[in-house]
Amino acid sequence: MYNETVEGELKQQERRHLMAKRIVSQQLTSCTIDAGGDAITLGLVDDEGETVSVRLSVRQAEAVSMTLPHLLSCALKMKSKDQDARYVYHLGKWTLSHSREEDLLVFTLSTPDGFQTSFALSKEAAQSISYALREAQFTSSSLEPRPARLN
Question: Mean pLDDT throughout 18-26?
Fold first, then answer.
């Protein structure tokens, strides 16, 4: 009886997965934050011209934001057939500030079109980056990794 119940539940999960609606986006129309800041909603137009939306909790949106840069680089590598290719954003401005935690700095990088992300830097990481930037020779071919194809 137990095995039949488990098998039945697994088959039901498979059916739900196969029946899941696949949305093929043709256009991103809006990005909104729900009242209270608990979720974001992406407005889209699908491949049939229908307006649809995807609502993600902040935790889900964070997971997507952490995954997309890697996926974009992988897609570029596949498309260009160049394993050194990377999806690269041009730096517009940067800021460095103290965090509420004494031992960390907040390093924020922004693109000219408004994309930005922040990193928490330990003292050791900040010193390492500082050293690497001081030692970098932008005209030298000795920088590792070697020059790569950009998007």
Answer: 83
